[in-house]
Design goal:
26% helix; 5-stranded mixed beta sheet; 5-stranded mixed β-barrel; alpha+beta
């Protein structure tokens, strides 16, 4: 009999559960919970799709606009309103989304007017004043052409909810970097090295004539025969434009000091925050300190090896004035250049010499004994970077990141 009593109790429990479910259904509680889970979940998925589409479209447009030296990318930038929807659609779960507008501060883009609807539909924060940027806003659009995401269950509830139109916004900026390798070149070297235009950026392989040889510990006294192509010898430095006696020596402020190497003729080393990074730190007033270069950090050794092996451009600070001597020396920043390092000669510590990866020429034929040399070419390209945008003129190095 105990068994029969137990079965009877279970039947009564099931009956009670059925009664509760009936009450909840009649009161709309279960439908409300279902609507909350399913329909709100669909809103979150739609919002994520729209945000991913806005991110992809904004980055694609920014990349087109930032690469001004590429005619094809320039045309894409000017036609951004026509190309952005493709990136937005590719990130939509149903393959369709709307692009409300594409705008920005680049002269080739329409200006931005007004905001979104609020409630997470606006781009986050304010854009930095020293960056050019593009903004893409996406919105709900279904394959049927409707701009309203209909509910699955909520329409059965009191109140007549009929759906929502969602929006998302992404902003991507580009501009000059605010830091670079702990290596610096003189402005006149950059001017001479880019006199014939920038070398094409990787993966393109430029002509050998684009390669320059930058030297330090070079007297720069104008007694050599500079040939104007970055390969002057004797006292000619590199990039000198003269021929015969008195030509070719680098002009101030790139004149090397008699003490040798502290403030260089063509390039020099800069102070780093610590020995674990190879990074130039530029102060708020636009100066950065000198490292005499007798003991280059292991981080900088590895940075140069990595740059040469990758063949990718790196950000190099360009100075327009050098003052002081030794550890008290200062450079004044002009801007940041994109430079592809192809080799070097007679550098201190474990670097020694590395032949040119562009021309195959031996370092010993490019860099005389007693000189320190860097080989490479200037280009106009995006460079690796993580930090804030700089306020200096663009000398070829451009950085890009999402800013809202």
């Amino acid at each position: 009999m105990p068994f029969l009593k137990s079965r009877a109790g279970a039947d009564r429990d099931r009956g009670a559960a059925a009664t509760i479910v009936t009450i909840l259904l009649a009161g709309g509680v279960l439908l409300g919970m279902t609507a909350l889970v399913v329909d709100v979940g669909r809103l979150y998925v739609e919002r994520e799709d729209l945000q991913s589409g806005a991110d992809a479209a904004a980055m694609a447009v920014a990349l087109d606009c930032a690469k001004r030296n590429d005619p094809d990318r320039d045309r894409e930038c000017r036609a951004a309103a026509g190309t952005a929807p493709g990136y937005a659609n590719n990130n939509a779960g149903d393959g369709t989304s709307g692009v409300r507008h594409v705008c920005g501060t680049d002269a080739r883009l329409p200006g931005c007017a007004g905001g979104g609807q609020g409630n997470l539909t606006d781009c986050l924060g304010q854009p930095p004043a020293n960056a050019t940027w593009v903004e893409v806003r996406t919105s709900t659009r279904l394959p049927s052409g409707s701009f309203i995401l209909p509910p699955s269950f909520a329409q059965t509830l009191a109140g007549g909810y009929s759906g929502s139109t969602l929006e998302a916004c992404a902003r991507v900026g580009w501009g000059s970097p605010s830091s670079g390798l702990a290596l610096t070149f003189c402005l006149s070297e950059w001017t001479d090295g880019t006199a014939g235009g920038y070398a094409p950026a990787p993966p393109a392989v430029p002509a050998a004539s684009f390669e320059v040889v930058l030297k330090t510990k070079d007297p720069g006294n104008g007694n050599g025969n500079g040939n104007g192509n970055g390969n002057g010898n004797g006292g000619g430095g590199n990039g000198g434009g003269g021929n015969g006696n008195g030509g070719g020596g680098p002009a101030d402020p790139c004149q090397a000091r008699p003490s040798g190497g502290d403030l260089p003729g063509g390039f020099g080393w800069t102070d780093t925050p610590n020995r674990n990074v190879c990074l130039t730190v530029v102060t708020a007033v636009g100066t950065y300190g000198v490292d005499p270069g007798a003991n280059v950090s292991h981080a900088c050794e590895q940075a140069l090896r990595d740059a040469r092996a990758s063949g990718q451009p790196v950000s190099i600070p360009i100075y327009n004035q050098a003052t002081g001597t030794g550890n008290n020396g200062l450079y004044r920043i002009e801007g940041f250049a994109a430079f592809v390092i192809t080799g070097w000669g007679n550098l201190p510590n474990g670097l020694h010499s590395a032949d040119s990866t562009l021309t195959g020429r031996a370092a010993s034929t490019l860099c005389d004994h007693g000189e320190d040399c860097i080989f490479g070419y200037f280009t106009n390209a995006l460079v690796p970077w993580d930090g804030e945008f700089g306020s200096t003129p663009n000398l070829g190095a451009t950085v890009i990141k999402t800013i809202g």
